[in-house]
Amino acid sequence: MSNLLYQQKHGLTKLNDAERAEMNALCRGYCDFITKAKIEREAVVESIRLAEEAGFRAYQRGMELNPGDRIYYNNRGKGLMLAVIGTDSIDAGATIVAAHIDAPRLDLKQNPLYESEELCLFKTHYYGGIKKYQWPAIPLELHGVVALKDGNVVTVSVGDKPEDPVFTITDLLPHLGKDQMAKTMAEGVQGEALNVLVGSQPGAEEKEAVKANILQILNETYGIVEEDFLSAELCVVPAFPAREIGFDRSLIGGYGQDDRVCSYPALRALFDLKSPRRTAVCILADKEEIGSEGVSGMKSRQFDTFMEDICVARGGTLRVCFENSICLSADVSAALDPTYPEVSEKRNAARVNYGVALCKYTGSRGKSGASDASAELVAFMRKIFDAEKVTWQMCELGKVDQGGGGTVAMYMAERNIDTIDAGVPVLSMHAPFETVAKFDVYMTYRAAKAVYNS
Ligand code: MN
Ligand code: MN
Hints:
By secondary structure, the chain is an alpha/beta fold. 27% of the residues lie in helices and 25% in strands. The protein is built from 11 helices and 23 strands. Strands 1-2-3-14-4-15-21-17-20 form a 9-stranded mixed beta sheet, sandwiched between helices. A 7-stranded antiparallel beta sheet has the order 8-7-11-5-6-10-9, with helices on one face. Strand 18 and strand 19 (371-372) form a beta hairpin. The longest helix has 20 residues, at 17-36. The relative contact order is 0.18. The structure holds manganese (II) ion (MN) (2 copies). One manganese (II) ion (MN) binds next to helix 6.
């Protein structure tokens, strides 16, 4: 009877001591990674640092590539592609794991700085799907760059060091919140109310003395003037380091885990490879949260260019390589939340601690943006996951009519690459502080390894 029934179990009880130690070491590295990498640019910098430690070197077109070679390509500081060259012909296809390193946040508008009632603030425009009411009255950091006309790029990172100040968005006190509290949660905090408080001290100027003083500080610190905001990319993100959650420390809380919680295991699994049969490729894409658009998103031909360069160096053809490749679109899924079970269909919901969650159907079917892996591909994944002792589960994002979210999967499938979604189940996805289980991070690492070795 036991062979006939499909039954799943809580994963943590299955681990031996060695596996538990490996899981904890991976998760320590992961917490460090997401604490350092709050925006995609920082994720690229930190990933390159780790990759170089693991023997990867920057790829330049025309470089000779041999089996076992370890290369990376930095796409404009916002996306990263890495490969370990396989022993087989590149026409036998690549094994690809694709994740994204951008996350929901607040971007500064291009004319952000203003003074009102002798307080100085930044105007913001949200990036990705946020619940706006979650952002006021929490500590915030500022990260990004200011690109100057002379070609210099100034890096900004304020709030992540213990001695730094932080910023905040103010909210109404409950005593005066009667009208606000009567609104829906979508309307209670408007996009134009997400103004970040950055100062209150007047300088010597007559007019807008507080703003003038802030500009003076910015000029002394970064050498910038107000007009330079026009060519800046400055992001407001939560000021929390990643932390263990629970008396048993089995969970991890932190900002931007969608999708760095898949990016980091995908990287680490690639670093572990020595000389794979097929060429193993990891792509960390930008712009997933706003539709994978732009030169650093998964729609960009930069990925095809990188792959074509490898094909040329290995004497293969891109279209043949893609036709024989497989891709794990490594992105998070929604975990069954005991407080909100009504949005999930329990038989097909991802559960915390049940391992990496595979999704055959992604997105809202019947609308654009949906993807659907074939039964044959799912069977292939079952085979390689079971062979590599990956604990995994099959899931759907929520109840059929509740909506659904997209991933980069469809852009890989469009390239004629067999693609399936899989990743870590997340509680409070897209919130300033998201929660995952260490076990599921560990199993996503093993899943990536199984794909690279397939
Ligand atoms: Mn995602
Ligand atoms: Mn997302």
